[in-house]
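Troubleshooting: if your tokenizer reports a length mismatch, compare your output against this known-good record of 143 residues.
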Amino acid sequence: MEGKGFFRTYSLYLAWLVCVIATCGSLYLSEVLHYEPCRLCWFQRIFMYPQVILLAIASYKNDRSIIPYLLPLSIIGGSISIYHYLEQQVPAFAKIAPCTVGVPCNVDYLNWFGFITIPLLALIAFVMMIGLLWVGRQKREEE
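Known-good structure output:
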């Protein structure tokens, strides 16, 4: 089985795996390490968490018809991640719509190598899911 065929065949399962890792990671950061999520983190979670259940059911049933409904969730969640990351890395973005309640959105609890932050990790997960769902969508169109 060639590489493309593998990803097309198992795209739902792999997207679910990425989603589970992202969800468990965010829960670990907030519930174990006690990093309080900011407002933008909550919005990213809103678009990630339901996909764990939806992708699990779709993977079990090998039901690719759910992909058009999941793609917008990942695209919107990824867009929020991009904005959140820019807010942390570019000071001018923090002034556009500052978080006025709770933890400021431009604070980064995690900063590996000077650029890897929690929103970047969320963005990577959303991009991986978009890619896997896109490949899975293409398999559906070929059938």
